[in-house]
Amino acid sequence: MKHLILVIEDQEDNRRIVRDLLVSAGYEIIEAVTGEDGVAAAKTHRPDLILMDIQLPDFDGYEATRRIKANPELHAIPIVAVTSYALNGDDVKALEAGCDAYVSKPFSPRALLAKIQEIIE
Amino acid sequence: MPKAFSLNTSPKVSSISRRFSFTLIGVITFILIVFAAVVILFDINRIESDLENRLEKAVKLSQNSLPIPLWNLDDMVVKEFVEALFLDESIVYTKISWKNKIIAEKYRNGFVYKDIDLDLDQKLHTGSKYIAKSSSINFKENAIATILIVMSRNSVKKQALLQIFGTVSLLILIVAAVWLTSIFITKRYISFPLLKLQEAASAIAQGDLETDVEKSGRDEIGVLAQHLDDMRGSIKQLFAELSDSKKRLEVHSRTLEQQVERRTLELAGSVDELKALGEISQVVNSTLDLETVLTRIVRHAVQLSKTDAGTIYEFDEEKQVFVPRINYGASAEFIAALHESKLSIGDQTVIGQAAVKRAPEQVADLSGFPEYPLPSTLQAGYHALLALPLLRENRLIGGLVVRRKAPGEFPVPVVDLLQTFAAQSVLAIHNARLFREVEEKGRELEIANKHKSEFLANMSHELRTPLNAILGYTELILDNIYGDVSEKIREVLERLEKNGRHLLSLINDVLDLSKIEAGRLTLSLNEYSIGEVIRTAVSSVEALAAEKNLDLNVSIPENLANGKGDEQRIAQVLLNLLGNAIKFTETGAVGIEAVVSNNKLVVSVSDTGPGLAEADQKKIFEEFYQADGSSTRKKGGTGLGLSISKKIVEMHGGRIWVKSTLGEGSTFQFTLPLRVEKQVEQP
After folding, report:
1. B109-127: string of b/e by CB count within 10 Å (b at 16+)?
2. What percent of chain A clears pLDDT 70, i.e. is strictly above it?
3. Closest CA to B528 of B560, B504, B505, B573
4. The complex's ipTM?
5. Is the link from the previous residue into A106 a cis peptide, with omega within 30 of 0?
6. Helix, strand or coil for residue B485?
7. Which residue on chain A is closest to B507 by alpha carbon?
8. Which of B453, B458, B463, B465 to mutate to test the interface with A (most CBs of A within 10 A)?
């Protein structure tokens, strides 16, 4: 059975890359562009993993993570934060917000895939 | 009295009068003695002849008187006659005889008959004691008797002695009289006046010039005294002149002294002025705090011009008024009045006038100036005012005013001095303005620099987003996610990916540096394992080293302590050093070594590369510097890596350096405090 991964990412190119990477690796993908949509999608689809971009147009990834983790039904879903290399201390903040792991932008698709596989399997 | 006129006591001189007396007496005595001798001789002679005459007479008398008695033989008469002859005391013997028969004879006692040779022959016989004469007595021309008369010389002798005695007594008397007279005369007319003269001369010698010299007569001594007195007069006049010139000399020297004193004072004043000026120019040049400088200037200006208060105004160009900036010596009330007054160019105040004339302006006495626009000045008791405009390149920037309670003109030197102070004030104000501008510019520059860094930080972030997409797609293509890729395309894609990664690292470095410069880089200080950080770094460059066939020697102790710091940033430094070492080394080995000692972590990364020239060893840590300018292109890299590493190390409170010899490789070393509790702020 295919694992379902929710990708919350506002940038189209990044979404496309992640989608192409994960689909080719045999995952099922749901995409959300905003934090709010992302949180809603998480409730609706109950994904196996959430890939959370930190810089989002409405509220940031930390807030989205807190909301998802605040929901007991969604609490167990692992969230991998995609932090910006540019903003120092994001990794720590991400872990504090409840993320289970993080990858720093710019990420190598191969490294991202390795990380996801490590968490899911 | 001046010492020059006091003489030593004159040596004792023998009295002139005495010498004169002796000489006089001597001469007189001699003359008298000669005269007396002549008189005596003459007298003796006269007495002698008198005796002889008497003898002759007695004989004659006998010849005349005796013939008759003799003839008559009247002896009685003859005897009486003889007796009568003896009345003459000189007759000592008489004998009348005839033919050896003595008719009459008489002698006085003591007479010795033998004494005289009586063989007389009618001649006069003279002997030492007696004279005798015998003669015949004739009667009718016949001799009838002979008579002999002897006279004693005794009486002559006695008379002569008497005569001598009288003469000598007279002589003595005369001599004594002459002596006494001469003594009296010399004493009265010579010695005494001379003594007086001597006393007077001595008094003059002792310095008494007031007492007149006694002028006793019109004789030589009187003349001498007159001359002496004249001399005294001359000396007195000389003295008067001397003391006058001495007085003048004293006055002159006193004047000189006063002049010297005054000059000294002036000099001291000048020295004070110079000191003040020196201090002020020193302060103007060393202190940028305008308040301090101007306060000193006003204080010195007031003190040196001996005034009571002073103000430095700054000219507000916009409002066209003088704003009192610094006050000295004035009461708070007066200062408040100054602040309220809106003094401006051309008004009737001293500063207003000085500003128009662009030259110093003064008022000697305000009380003669009832319409003066700033009445508080006179109310505060200031009468004299001096104002100097502060001009900078002919532009009015302010004014210096000093006020004095005592009315009166300000002398030129004071005005000149204050002009110097005004010039210094101008300089100080100008300096302060320049400094303000520089400071403002500096602040602006700093802000601009920050903006630049922020812009770079944002920009590089914006640059990375599309680049990430490019690299992401490239990687996916290379991983055959979009289907198989021909070998030719794969090769191109690999180049694309390589260049893309280089571009990314460039952007990342720029981003790091600008973040550091913008002060936006904060370290995440956490516990970390030194060994693990090093091993992770080594493992990520192993492939690169292997590609170039370089040995990678890792030497770290088994159980290195945990450190505290920003793990990611430390890893970044390690990766940078290892990457450089591998990049620049063609053959040989790259080594990494870590030691902990004295609570310090020391890491060395060494290589067998080309090494660095001495000159390059410092510059290498500067931004965009690579030893060989061309190597950036050849070897890739931004030239920012070492600069960023240095900043990261320093933010941890550590140090980084390189030891290298050209041709023998390099060793980069850095130290970090084992536990960093606080980020070190970058200057």
Report:
1. eebeeebbebebeeeebbe
2. 93
3. B560
4. 0.86
5. yes
6. coil
7. A86
8. B465
